[in-house]
Amino acid sequence: MNTLSSSTPAPDELRSALDDHRTRLPGRFGLAVGGAVRDPQRWKDTVDPATGEPLATVASATPEEVDAAVVTARAAAAQWAERPPGERGAVLRRLGALVRRDAEVLARLETRDTGKPLTQGRADIAAAARYFEFYGSVVEGFLGDSVPLGPGSLAVVERLPHGVTGHVVPWNYPAQITARSVGAALAVGNAAVVKPADEAPLVALAYARLAREAGIPDGVLNVLPGGAEAGSALVAHRDVDHVSFTGSVATGRVVAAACADRGRPALLELGGKSAHLVLEGADLGRAAPVIARALLLHAGQTCTAGTRVVVHESLHADLVAALVPFFTAATIGPGLGDPTVGPVVSAPQAERVRGFVDRAEREGAVVAAQTPMAATGGGYFVPPVLFDQVAQTAELFSQEVFGPVLAVTPVSSDAEAIDAAHNSDYGLTAAVWCTDIDRALRTARSLDVGQSYVNGYAPGGGVELPFGGTRDSGYGREKGVEALREYSRTRTLFVDIASH
Ligand code: NAD
């Protein structure tokens, strides 16, 4: 076993390798358990999506190693839970400050790990710092209740941590998703075991190193990269009290079943097929750039990506004309060069997206614009496509692509737009564009989604806004103060008071 400082490459050791997407990262990234870095039973090379070449040598946890991490977390949980919220909060705010101190290295790590443009990597790290700072702050005002039942009694509702929380993180936004769920879980006093996706585990491992520097006690934050085997060992572990999962619907159901089998709560964030409803009276000059950006962000691999545009027929041609330049002018390339769009995360993901594009064309959708592709070496690049005249019965209209593909569909009324928006099993987010604010609000409030936007689009909302879906998009809420409720439970203390 090595100490964290000697075995996970430090920011200074990584800095020069992160300037060039052709450089493999030095050192090896082991398992972060109990405040130390442990050599795993097996190593795996991750791949740089911009080149298809090996990026880093990273641990791939076995079920036995997951079990050992849960035991370690359990041993650390009680003491951490007993620390006053003000102390836990101060430590988390310090972690946020350390994330800001190392922001450039972390942003470049995230960019090389996931493929996203550097500007987006930087934005993700800034948001991650905010999560630690936000939860480190609001937890001090996260109070229990007393319930007035009359002079003969005292009823107090306490807020307690679950104990050990398991966090299964996907590859698209690992820096943000790890920070948001770990920030809330640790703030209320849980000890966490995090399993990042094996495609993109590096920033979560970097958090473990920073957590120790911030003063988070050993064992309170444990990070074990790995694949499905490690994930399923974590969610099925009898000593994990709460599981948060972000990823696909299919895996989410397996995770929920494993938790149900043990009678433990799960939070599922499973993506979406979010729609923009562009109604008569929409300001297209305002809507078009936001719609394009919300789709192209991280090459469409965003759970909240607005991937469908349901537009009133009177505005249809003008809106498509306004969207085309965003697709033709977009640039594609390695994330470190900060293009509009980087590669998608992996070869299978690129294949999946190309499959959707081919089938959409066969189903009669019209290509209104496609970003020109320059030579991009061995990376997993997929050119963004703007599809027009997408039928409401088409696969592209209801299925999540997780790639840079936008579907435009004309409709003839607000009612048809609302029906169309609901014509998908997902219910994560939606946006309504209309300058008649009454009409916009009526429409926005009729949508069965977790977040509904008017004349704007906030993918994922802010740090402060409760976030999660309905139907196949999952259940439970991340973000905002709401997440502190999610990661805690109540205990009611009732006292019968004698009258004299
Ligand atoms: P996935 O759901 O298989 O993986 C997500 C996470 O779950 C990863 O950490 C993975 O290792 C882990 N995992 C896999 N099998 C598991 C199991 N049986 N038990 C516990 N954990 C397990 O997703 P994917 O294969 O990486 O991507 C497939 C599709 O999922 C994408 O194309 C996209 O549509 C969707 N997706 C959605 C989100 C989102 O933010 N909602 C994120 C990533 C992927």
Could you explain how this protein is built, in words?
- This protein folds into two domains: 281 residues, Aldehyde Dehydrogenase, Chain A, domain 1 (3-Layer(aba) Sandwich); 188 residues, Aldehyde Dehydrogenase, Chain A, domain 2, CATH 3.40.309.10.
- The chain contains 17 helices and 24 strands.
- The strands form six sheets. The protein has a seven-stranded mixed β-sheet, with helices on both faces. A six-stranded mixed β-sheet has the order 11-10-9-12-13-23, sandwiched between helices. A three-stranded antiparallel β-sheet has the order 1-4-3.
- The termini are far apart.
- The site of nicotinamide-adenine-dinucleotide has 26 residues, from helix 9, helix 10 and helix 13.
Please tag this protein with its features.
single chain; 500 residues; alpha/beta; Aldehyde Dehydrogenase, Chain A, domain 1; Aldehyde Dehydrogenase, Chain A, domain 2; 2 domains; 7-stranded mixed β-sheet; 6-stranded mixed β-sheet; 17 helices; 24 strands; disordered N terminus; binds nicotinamide-adenine-dinucleotide
Task: Measure the end-to-end span.
Answer: 63 Å
CATH architecture of the largest domain: 3-Layer(aba) Sandwich
Structural class: alpha/beta
- CATH topology of the largest domain: the name is Aldehyde Dehydrogenase, Chain A, domain 1
The general outline is globular
Strand content: 15-25%
| Estimated helix fraction | 25-40%
Helical element count?
Answer: 17
Ligands in the model, by name, code or SMILES, are: nicotinamide-adenine-dinucleotide
